[in-house]
Design a protein that fits this description.
This protein has one domain (15-328): Metal-dependent hydrolases (TIM Barrel), CATH 3.20.20. It is an alpha/beta fold. It is 50% helix and 13% strand.
């Protein structure tokens, strides 16, 4: 990605990494139409231009309910393994088009499987195959994170974890997502004991729909190495100090937070205050198929609107690489790649 395309907010000498993007939250509108036609799935529109407003969200209709409504169209077309494989491949292609060097794509096998009664293990295999196809056709490095959808409950998450661990070779980490307030992290301590025993990394959605207590629990009960969103950590000075001293980073998704009305304006986003207190963070798109944004948008539009200066944004780009679930050898290779092109 050329520096002049992003107003200098992205440093071309550093790898561009995204650590929080939901694979099933990034389905192209054209793909939704094509898969719907193939599987005879009814949609509210029959061309890209008229369907897009049903899929994309903006400031004119924000809120969690509106956001989740859009998800219905994305998962409705995941009718078979081939559909899952295609969506995964296109996620990698989209990352390449955005100039991303490394991306961690996360997904819930149970959530993707539910609508059409698919086997979660088959969904995992299909997604892994699609990612492999995308990697072979691009220069993007990709890692997968398995999500446990806590909205379905503790027992269902244990079954989902069984599927993830059965396909452990496809994943670098496991995440806990869904109804944060209704299903606090401590309920899933046995699950993440198994995750860590399997040698997988841990990232947890926390501090978004619930307060600092959720972040504390994600760290102390589940062993979280990173926190998805986590901006409500700002409400607890002791937690802010803990994050700053330990280097546990926040996967920040500003536009997504705006779209679900977790914050009313970019300028209200707590990440500016958190960064000023030494908390490590990186910028991410979350569900770009719904928010209709790219990673460059988060750097060059969202970040300055929040009030972050260029030095802080570039530091976050470096932190994204440091926070990534990569080996030192893999990290060094990404740095060399970026240096060769700058």
């Amino acid at each position: 990605m050329e520096n002049n395309e992003t107003g200098g907010w992205i440093d071309p000498a550093l790898p561009l990494c995204e650590l929080h993007r939901h694979l099933d939250g990034n389905v192209r509108v054209a793909t939704i139409l094509d898969l719907a036609r193939r599987h005879r799935i009814e949609l509210p529109a029959n061309d890209v231009e008229t369907l897009a407003p049903f899929v994309h969200i903006d400031d004119s209709e924000p809120g969690l309910v509106a956001f989740l409504k859009r998800f219905e169209y994305l998962v409705a077309v995941l009718a078979d393994d081939d559909a899952c494989r295609r969506v995964a491949r296109e996620n990698v292609e989209d990352a390449a088009a955005e100039g991303i060097d490394y991306i961690e794509l996360r997904f819930s096998p149970a959530f993707m499987a539910e609508r059409h009664g698919l086997d979660p293990r088959a969904v995992i295999d299909a997604c892994a195959e699609g990612v492999a196809e995308g990697v072979a056709a691009t220069s993007v490095k990709v890692a997968l994170i398995g999500i446990l959808s806590r909205t379905y409950g503790v027992d269902a998450c244990m079954r989902e974890l069984d599927a993830v661990l059965d396909r452990r070779e496809h994943f670098v980490a496991v995440d806990l997502a869904g109804d944060e307030a209704g299903y606090p992290p401590a309920l899933f301590r046995p699950h993440f004991d198994r995750v860590r025993e399997a040698g997988l990394h841990v990232t947890v959605h926390a501090g978004e729909a619930a307060g600092p207590e959720s972040v504390w629990s994600a760290i102390n009960d589940l062993g979280a190495e990173r926190i998805g969103h986590g901006f409500r950590s700002a409400e607890d000075p002791e937690l802010v100090q803990e994050l700053a001293s330990t280097g546990i980073g926040l996967e920040c998704c500003p536009t997504s937070n705006l779209h679900i009305q977790a914050v009313e304006r970019y300028a209200d986003h707590p990440i500016r205050a958190l960064a000023a207190q030494g908390v490590r963070f990186c910028l991410n798109t979350d569900d770009p198929g719904i928010s209709a944004v790219t990673l460059a948008h988060e750097y060059s539009v969202a970040a300055p609107a929040i009030g972050l200066d260029r030095a802080t944004v570039r530091r976050s780009q470096a932190d994204a690489l440091a926070m990534a679930f990569l080996s030192d050898i893999e990290r060094d290779a990404l740095v060399r790649k970026a240096g060769a092109r700058s």
